[in-house]
Amino acid sequence: MTHSALSRADLAGRAEAVAPLLLGAVLESRGPQALSDPVAVRITEVEAYGSTGADPASHAHRGRTQRNAAMFGEPGHLYMYFIYGMHWCANVVCGQPDEGAAVLIRAGEVLRGVEVARLRRGGSRPDRDLARGPANLAAGLGLRGQHNDIDLFADDSPVRLLPGPRGPLSPAEVACGPRVGIRHAVDRPWRWWIVDDPTVSRHPGPRGHRPR
DNA sequence: GCGACGATCTCA
DNA sequence: GAGATCGTCGCC
């Protein structure tokens, strides 16, 4: 049994409704040239970011800008952003076009292309760390600014959103809690992760909050 | 035009 | 707990 395939229509809802649906689904990237083998990552942790005026922590909160324009496009596209002068992070655009909502993909399990992911990450590290944390996940998949706004549902896209291999998640397998690394709307429990999954990111978190 | 800071990570 | 490192946006 596989995770049922997500369609673009499934992503058209509110970010906080779409986010948990992405758990267990797979992001697969095909690199150009040398690192052309696909890397597939099963999503284990996500965060919802709401639309303009509705979520002070969202890049879309103050409206459309050049950077966040992809958030205001069609659901099912990627929104890539660059952070801290060195990291790229990947979001799946959701909601209605012009709404400006997205789901940050925070962590995943590398199902395929472990060798390529390890090369991209550099050094030797446990498999479970290859896509643990949003910047690590993007790095392992080889995702950067050039992938901003690409359509995850186009057959010829270098990055695609595919059904997961393990079947639907039961409610007991999913936990939620506050988002990480933000200053505003910290109380909103808009981060979801797969319980006991070793690839879910670790982080200092305010007051020692930890996924379990 | 300028400057403060950020949806991070690693290592000490 | 600091440092790496730079694009973005708000404000001067």
Query: Mean pLDDT, as a whole number?
Result: 91
Order of helices and strands: HEEEEEHHEEE
Percent helix, as a range, is 10-25%
Quick one: overall form? globular
Give the total of beta strands: 8
Count of DSSP H/I helices: 3
Tell me the major beta sheet: 8 strands, antiparallel
Task: Report the oligomer.
Answer: single chain
Please report the distance between the alpha carbons of the first and last residues: 26 Å
Poorly predicted tracts of residues = 205-212
Radius of gyration: 16 Å
Structural class: alpha+beta
**Beta-strand percent range:** 25-35%
In short:
The chain is of the alpha+beta class. It has helices at residues 15-22, 114-121, 134-141, and strands at residues 26-29, 39-49, 78-83, 87-94, 101-112, 159-162, 174-177, 191-194.
Features:
DNA-binding, alpha+beta, 11% helix, 3 helices, 25% strand, 212 residues
How would you explain this protein's 3D organization?
With about 210 residues, the chain is an alpha+beta fold. Helices cover about 10% and strands about 25% of the residues. The chain has helices spanning about 15-20, 115-120, 135-140, and strands spanning about 25-30, 40-50, 80-85, 85-95, 100-110, 160, 175, 190-195. Strands 1, 2, 3, 4, 5, 6, 7 and 8 form an eight-stranded antiparallel β-sheet that branches. The model is unreliable at about 205-210 (pLDDT under 50). The chain binds a DNA duplex (12 and 12 nucleotides) through strand 3, strand 4 and helix 3.
